[in-house]
Design a protein that fits this description.
The complex is a heterodimer of chains A (about 250) and B (about 80).
Chain A (H helix, E strand, L loop, with lengths): L1 E9 L4 H9 L9 E6 L2 E8 L8 H15 L3 E4 L5 E2 L2 H10 L1 H11 L2 E10 L1 H19 L9 H35 L5 E6 L5 E10 L3 H14 L3 E9 L11
Antiparallel strand pairs in A: 1-3, 1-4, 1-5, 2-3, 6-8, 6-9, 7-8
Helix pairs in contact in A: 5-6, 6-7
Chain B lengths: L1 H22 L8 E4 L5 E5 L7 H8 L4 H12 L1
Antiparallel strand pairs in B: 1-2
Helix pairs in contact in B: 2-3
The chains are: A alpha+beta (about 250), B mainly alpha (about 80).
Amino acid sequence: MNMMSYAIVSVKNNSDKLNALLMGMKGVVGCDLFAVSYDDIYTVVSNVKGANLIADKINALTFAGVIDTLAQQFTLLPVRFGSLMGSADAIVKMLERNRHEILQNLLKVENKYEFGLKVFCDSGKLMEELRLKSGAGEKMHLKPSPEIKNSVYRDYLDKKLAEHRLEESMLAYVDAVITEIAGRLEHLGAVNNFKKMVSEALIIDAVFLLERDKKAELIQVVKDLQRQNAGLRFILTGPWPPYNFVDLDIK
Amino acid sequence: MYDNEIDRSKEITILELLDRVLNKGVIITGDVVISVADVDLVYLGLKLMLSSVETMEQLKSGQSIAGKNKQVNQAMQ
């Protein structure tokens, strides 16, 4: 029988509260949940037979639900779905070996939630606006070179140059939006992580780690951003347990 | 229109959730035996890095995790 880990939890002399909470919950495939501890760190686990652990949507959502419920009452580090260990002893040894790093990570995410922000755009429309905006400048730069007399080559080079400039304009635009978002979030003390140009439509995919009591302020910031950037679509998700802010390689 | 917006937001939230559960968080090294829906039991050995059900299906057929992650990201877009 294997044990499936859900989260590493900071209990802080309140193990009774954790145990009481686990009594009323079920894990993946309806298994009972319980905690395995070393010192003041607890790992929430359930027994699971290998054949029962199917990586489908229902199990993944059940797994996420357990982590979410725990995260509402405790500071925790979510464990990735599918992490099995052979026994409670193996888990205790794992916690013992990694205690320092685990405590550092727990401290980093203490009383904080993760939020996701996706910024979508109509890429065709935005490209056209940027093309028009930079049109005048382009014409000045694209004077025919005296060395390139063949119009096929010149057309090709002009086309490539125009594409390159459009890409640069797009990146500069996305950078400006990121700077605007980061600036608005600065006073909230959020830890940010931005990915840009994830796809043509998804121009920014960001995650923030934020104090739990600043959720309302974050929502207001996103509402303001949406109002002032009507051509973009801002989608805020969360609060999430700190999935994206775990920096831990378990030994 | 409004219903479509809500549906899209729900869809994005579920994709975000699945992405986090399957791709993020603490990775604990261990022996892992997992079966994928309607696929035979798959033994993946040590240091499993689950990405998605599709990734596991591809792993079984010999494709790389990196290649699949790219596809999962594209599919989510």
